[in-house]
Amino acid sequence: MKEIIIEKLYKIVKVPYEYFFKNQEAWDVTISDFINLPEESLGFHLGCFLLKYNLEPQPRLEEHDIYHVLTNTGVLVTDEINMQFYLLGNGKKSPFVFMVIATGLVFYPFRIKTYLESYRKGKQAHQFYHLDFLKMLAIPLENIKSTFNIH
Questions:
Q1: Cα 102 vs. chain centroid, distance in angstroms?
Q2: What residues does 41 pair with on adjacent strands?
Q3: CA distance linking residue 51 with residue 61, whole number of Å
Q4: What contacts 21, CB < 8 A, 6 or more positions away?
Q5: Cα(84)–Cα(43) distance, rounded to whole angstroms?
Q6: Contact (CB, 8 A) for 63 and 133
Q7: pTM summary value
Q8: How confident is the model over 97-107, as pLDDT tens digits?
Q9: Rounded Cα distance, 3 and 8, in Å
């Protein structure tokens, strides 16, 4: 039941969030474009992530799925909350981050230790949330993760 409430909140907030905070152009790429990149590349791994979870790229929100790939995070509600704690630790401060974190604290307070560990990992990583990932799709995923100390 918690997950249903949280997913409804996300759907309500998504459109105004995109309108007010996501002004960049959509990437205009397909899953096939990602899969055709070298197997070690960030883009290939993004394509695999999208296929694994039966997702499509979200126009103007493409970097969100990149965060999942870089942090090796699944798509369950609790995975999303952990990833947002990681991103907060990495310095990302957006209304979406704070909304998801608040939701996590309200609905899953017993997971606070896990959240704090994700936050610490984000702090230990070099800041990466602001990068232009479209230009990085052909770079090997492991190179990016080691360069930015992403664990």
A1: 17
A2: 140
A3: 17
A4: 94, 95, 96
A5: 21
A6: yes
A7: 0.88
A8: 998 999 999 99
A9: 9
